[in-house]
Write a structure and sequence with these properties.
With 409 residues, the protein is α+β, with helices and mostly antiparallel strands. It is 35% helix and 27% strand. The protein starts with a helix and ends with a strand.
Length: 409
């Protein structure tokens, strides 16, 4: 891959993704797969004005080893130095860049139940810090190729060729392969903003999903919830940033506890390094009461039992079937990309900034209005070529939102 193209992508992450400002601190979380590209991102952050850039390296196989050999007590402990790092993030509000490259099956065979128990205990300590930072800092998730990930997507190719093909797919779907990626994102954000404005003007109270695969679901919306898409603005600083590169979705956080019916997956879903495939989720009184899957059904059951909110919806996202990610023909087996290929739902944590005037409310008040709270936020894909979504307005009028998998307006 040409170095000039990769530098443009790194610049896009730094300037359009997190939108680094002069003197800001930046923390990059990355696996060991693309150190040269990580170095380029660090440099572009400094060129954008960053005062300090730190890289937190990780290595997926080590997590699997730690889960195997550490006691549950040790695995559950949040060390003092870890808590100090969280305190620093609350105070400094650094820009956070997450570069994803992990193997979709890299945690196969790991004791997921043990990991889940440890995660629940750790979350009780971490949650206050996470809540204190919510909506107040700039962050961006983007992808880089890992060899194992690339070989899974292109199994017939040599490792180097597979990585090259994955780079091409990542750059194309991220609008980073053209001469001016930053301008391309400005145009893209403008289009998403127009769609949000139309939907918010309908004053919808419910979304009804139907597809020939059996999906038949009704989801209630919060009266003063807003559809969002593309970039967001950090509270306090007013800095505009793009949390996901790529992003094709227009989304809203629904009313917790208001979902009835069944929905079927349309793509595999990667959870904690394992793929869950061909599954369904049935809702009653807003909660997932039954899940079935051809592969990793027990893992799916573990996921929806992580806490009280894990079985309820935190997001409804709208993505046309003919969008660029689905059209490219690559099944990424990575949620960042696959969720932006077709319509999806998310179980778990909802977005407080989906509420009108959310900055006037505490997190507790946002939850009381209907924003779901959970330690997880897991997107799974439900979009199909014949998916129909109808919006029901407060006055009972029906509006076509999607027909045959595409925008109906």
């Amino acid at each position: 891959m040409k170095k000039t193209v990769l530098r443009n992508y790194a610049r896009l992450i730094a300037k359009t993704g997190v939108n680094v400002q002069k003197g800001q601190e930046v923390i990059i979380v990355a696996d060991l797969d693309q150190p040269e590209f990580v170095k380029t991102v660090v440099e572009e952050c400094y060129k954008a004005g960053a005062g300090k850039v730190t890289v937190d390296w990780s290595y997926q196989p080590l997590e699997k080893i730690n889960v195997k050999y550490r006691s549950l007590k040790t695995l559950s402990t949040v060390e003092k130095w870890e808590e100090e790092k969280w305190k620093h993030r609350v105070e400094a509000l650094p820009c956070m860049i997450y570069l994803l490259s992990e193997d979709p099956d890299g945690s196969a065979g790991m004791d997921q139940e043990k990991y889940a128990k440890a995660a629940r205990k750790r979350f009780g300590i971490i949650k206050p810090y996470r809540d204190a930072m919510e909506n107040k800092y700039q962050w961006c998730i983007a992808g880089v190729p890992g060899k194992a990930w690339a070989k899974k997507l292109f199994p017939g190719e040599r490792p180097a060729k597979a990585v090259e093909l994955l780079w091409e797919a990542i750059l194309k779907t991220s609008r980073a392969d053209g001469p001016d990626p930053i301008q391309a994102w400005k145009d893209h954000n403008a289009d998403l903003e127009k769609r949000c404005a139309y939907l918010n003007g309908l004053h919808l109270k419910e979304l009804v999903y139907k597809a020939s695969n059996g999906t038949d679901l009704r989801v209630g919306l919060i009266p003063d919830a807003l559809f969002l898409g593309g970039g967001e603005t950090a509270l306090g600083s007013g800095i505009f940033f793009n949390p996901n590169i790529p992003s094709e979705e227009v989304f809203v956080s629904p009313m917790a506890g208001k979902a009835e019916g069944i929905v079927y997956s349309s793509k595999p879903f990667s959870f904690r390094g394992e793929l869950i495939e061909n599954f369904s989720v049935r809702f009653e009184n807003g909660k997932a009461v039954e899940v079935r899957a051809e592969k990793n059904e027990e893992l799916l059951k573990t996921m929806i039992s992580m806490d009280e909110g894990a079985a309820m919806l935190g997001e409804c996202a709208l993505v046309p079937w003919s969008g660029p990610i689905n059209r490219c023909g690559v099944l990424f087996c990575n949620t960042l990309y696959d969720e932006n290929a077709v319509c999806h739902l998310a179980l778990g944590h909802g977005f407080t900034n989906c509420l009108k005037d959310y900055e006037k409310y505490t997190n507790e008040e946002c939850r009381a209005k209907g924003i779901n709270d959970s330690m997880i936020h897991e997107d799974f894909m439900i979009g199909t070529e014949d998916l129909s979504i109808t919006g029901i307005a407060e006055d009972g009028k029906e509006y076509p939102i999607f027909r045959n998998g595409e925008w109906a307006f």
